[in-house]
Amino acid sequence: MQNFEFYNPTRIIFGKDTIAQLADHVPAKARVLVLYGGSSAEKNGTLAEVRAALGARTVREFGGIEANPTYETLMRAVATIRAEGLDFLLAVGGGSVIDGTKFVAAAVNDKGDAWNILRTHGSDVSEALPFGSVLTLPATGSEMNSFSVISRTETKEKLAFGSPHVFPRFSVLDPTKTYTLPVRQVANGVADAFTHVMEQYLTYPAGGMAQDRFAEGLLLSLVEIGPQVIANPHDYDLRANLMWIATLALNGLIGAGVPQDWATHMIGHELTARHDIDHARTLAIVLPSMLRVRKEAKRGKLLQYAERVWNLRDGTEDERIESAIERTRAFFESLDIPTRLSAYGLGTETIDGVIEQLEQHGMTAMGEHQDITLDVSRRVLEASL
């Protein structure tokens, strides 16, 4: 196992009717900006509960954060905070709203070009406004980590940053707030969480016994409940398990002391930035092809994955690996998530643009071995057609 430091200060408040506990965790004298996305938080009553819990505190609201939160929109929130002297943020929504809130928290006191927070991947962030979250869409794990992904419409860029200064102080997770989510968003959440686990698990054997078993348990659980959680939107236990699994998939625990990949995400980000495909759907497009193209580098873990997650023990090594990859693709397809670029109207003409963006963003040596060159990324995209 590799050396590691594990730190996660986020308090999780989990269960039914827990939004009222905001009153105990938002400072009584805080001047709060509530950030949210579209109208669903208002329609399903979540915002009303938040307002009631915040009581007599000074509260302002900022809506309209996109599914891929944009720099342009978030800088308007920054301007509001500066103009009104607000000092605490509360994200109400899914990972996109929480990601956006992290950027806003870091940007408010930044004296230069705030886009540099993304260009430097957060290395220059030295402070951030405190914030909490109320999670309404399980998917990204942003409610319990210190990472954020932001898009810039003007330049068609999508970049990530991380900083220990942008851990949420707390996150409220009430599974009942997911009951009214559209099927597409729930399916995306399952795929997103699944791929988060795979990026940390499916690399090469590193002796992380607990991490492997934790990761395999999360994958097995997602395979088991994925179709069910879509078919039974008001099943509390299913939604509760999905919500907690998605949090555990990216709160740092399963990735501690083991190698990580993340190349699937980097390529997926460029597909979203250039073609506006849902983030989780880009992952479903790229991951099976990434596993196939990098089959030799990942052979040991692919065989372990085949046996422990898909119960594949018969046949040659190559047959088991191929079957595991195809079952992964079939799992995404069972969620009604297409796994080929052609299903989104994209062909070979899209590949050069994605490769150019990867090169522009310095993504020329990715993966657990830093051996995913632009040529390998091209092969992955060609295999995704």
Tell me what you see in this structure:
With 385 residues, the chain is α/β, with parallel strands linked by helices. It has 2 domains: 11-178, Rossmann fold; 183-384, Dehydroquinate synthase-like - alpha domain (Dehydroquinate synthase-like, alpha domain). 46% of the residues lie in helices and 11% in strands. It has helices at 22-25, 40-43, 46-54, 71-84, 95-107, 116-119, 183-201, 209-231, 236-248, 263-275, 279-293, 299-308, 317-334, 351-360, 374-383, and strands at 11-14, 31-36, 58-62, 88-93, 131-135, 147-152, 157-162, 170-173. A hairpin with a 4-residue loop joins strand 6 (147-152) and strand 7 (157-162). The radius of gyration is 20 Å and the shape is globular. The model has no long low-confidence stretch (mean pLDDT 96). Keywords: Oxidoreductase. Its cofactor is Fe cation.
Amount of beta strand? 5-15%
Q: Report the count of strand segments.
A: 8
Helix content: 40-55%
What is the CATH-assigned architecture of the largest domain?
Up-down Bundle
Give the count of structural domains.
2
CATH superfamily of the largest domain: Dehydroquinate synthase-like - alpha domain
Shape: globular
In DSSP terms, counting alpha (H) and pi (I) runs of 4 or more, how many helices? 15
Largest sheet composition:
6 strands, parallel
Write down the secondary-structure element order: EHEHHEHEHHEEEEHHHHHHHHH
- Rg, please? 20 Å
Q: What is the CA-CA span between the terminal residues?
A: 37 Å
Family: Belongs to the iron-containing alcohol dehydrogenase family.
Protein name: Iron-containing alcohol dehydrogenase
InterPro entries: ADH_Fe/GldA (IPR001670), ADH_Fe_C (IPR056798), ADH_Fe_CS (IPR018211), BDH-like (IPR044731)
Cofactor: Fe cation
